[in-house]
Amino acid sequence: MNNIKNQPLLLLSMTLVALLVCIMLLTGMYISRGISPAWLLLVIVTVSLTGSLFTLFKRQDKQLLQVIRALANGDNTLGFSAQHPMRQHIEQVKQQMQAARFDAEQQSEFLKALLVHVDLAVIVCDAQGNIIESNPAVARLLGKSAAHLIELSHIGTMISTAQKNLKSTVQWLYGEQLDTLTLRVSIAEIQGQERKIVTLQSIHDMLLNKEQQAYKRLTRVLTHEVANTITPLASIAQTCQGLMPKELSFIDQENKQDLNLALSTLASRTQYLGEFIASFRQISSLPMPNLAPTQLTAILERIQILHLQQLTEHKITLTIDIQSQQLVMLDSGQIEQVLINLVKNAIEAVQLHVSQQTSLGVSDIAQGQITLTVAQNNAQQLYVEVADNGAGIAKHVVEMIFVPFFTTKQQGSGIGLSLSRQIMVNHGGDLVYLSRGQGGCFRCIFG
Question: Whole-model pTM above 0.85?
Answer without folding.
Answer: no
